[in-house]
Amino acid sequence: MATMKNEIDFLLHLADNALIIGHRNSEWCGHGPILEQDIAITNIALDYIGQARNFYQHAAELINRHPIGIDITQTGNDIVLPATEDSLAYLRDVREFKNLLITEIPNGDWAHTTLRLFLLSEFEMQLFTHLLQHPDAQVAAIAEKSIKEVSYHVKWSQDWVLRLGDGTEESKQRMQAAIEAIWAYTGELFIQPEYATAACLNYAAIQDVWNKKVSAVFEEAGLNIPSKTFIQKGGAEGMHTEHLGYILAEMQYLQRAYPNSEW
Amino acid sequence: MSFQINKLYYGDYGESKNGAADISTNQTNTAEWPLWEVFIRSKQGLDHKHAGSLHAADAAMAIENARDVYTRRMEGVSLWVVESKHIHASNPDEAGSLYDPAHDKAYRHPTFYNLPEEVKYM
């Protein structure tokens, strides 16, 4: 049973990551720097919402199949049975969310947004590749589908890191500022959550490949990796920045105020 | 006293306008990216068809933008982009001499053959 709880927690972790970064990217809708890029980042947001739905649906299925004896939340309450993708997204409190902090920090400018997406999607690329070997065939299938989307996210965001890093004086300065601001949130990517127990996961190997890929792009763009190594962490365990509460308030307001409303 | 009158229709990029080059070399508006024309092949075996246009800083970005703007509903399997300034258009003023002579030459249409069922996309 502990294995099942771990898998459910891990699925919620993946789903929350996708939901929150999807929400952050969707905030650009109608505000993109140019129409074409507005559509691009909104497409990416929709990819993430699709991934979130897949992971939530599978988590809900497992929760409903094993409802007894599993305390699936950290505080032991606030879960609605039967679980659905919607109840998991809209009816859990901030401490129940297991998303990485890097997904919830504000968008900042275009450099911050594209850099964050680059750092995160290079990580997801490796993580999902490991998940192809997951014993649960459904998890492996979701990973396989997601990899096609993530490859494009890597390409698109990497292009922007290169363009801005190797662009004008101002664009370089903005991209470097984004690195200084976001770097402290990258360490958490490689801290294996205690519920990430699937044997196919090797976070050290993920970090190794990630380091090489990110350094290569930074080098090509003429950007520097900060020497500071302080790590912001805790998101995967439900300890969040103050920003997540605001996201959830906006996202969950309707379902909380008008339970079960549909449109 | 003489006036030069240029009639431009949608899709025509007159030599005087020089398409996107006009935008990209305009010192007062260097922030504008050049215009690109997008051609999409909807499935293998068909030819690329003009789908529309978009702005992008270079060819690589134009392909990505075209992917995002024009193929999000499964419209295509292949993309071409070409900078709009490289497209030369026929002169609408010469439409009479260019196209009218074809009007009464019905025998040029290959409508006098029976096509076998197996031949698709004709």
How would you describe this structure to a colleague?
The complex is a heterodimer of chains A (263) and B (122). Chain A has helices at 2-26, 35-65, 85-90, 101-104, 110-131, 137-165, 169-182, 203-221, 242-257. The longest helix of chain A has 31 residues, at 35-65. The N and C termini of chain A lie far apart (37 Å). Chain A has a single domain, classed as Ferritin, core subunit, four-helix bundle (Ferritin, Up-down Bundle), CATH 1.20.1260. Chain A has nine helices and no strands. Chain A is an all-alpha fold. Chain B has a domain at 33-89: Ubiquitin-like (UB roll), CATH 3.10.20. Chain B contains three helices and three strands, in the order H-E-E-H-E-H. A three-stranded antiparallel beta sheet of chain B has the order 2-1-3. In chain B, strand 1 and strand 2 form a beta hairpin. Chains A and B meet through helix 2 and helix 6 of A and helix 2 of B.
Secondary-structure map with pairings?
The complex is a heterodimer of chains A (263) and B (122).
Chain A: H1 2-26, H2 35-65, H3 85-90, H4 101-104, H5 110-131, H6 137-165, H7 169-182, H8 203-221, H9 242-257
Chain B: H1 19-24, E1 35-41, E2 49-55, H2 59-70, E3 78-83, H3 95-99
Antiparallel strand pairs in B: 1-2, 1-3
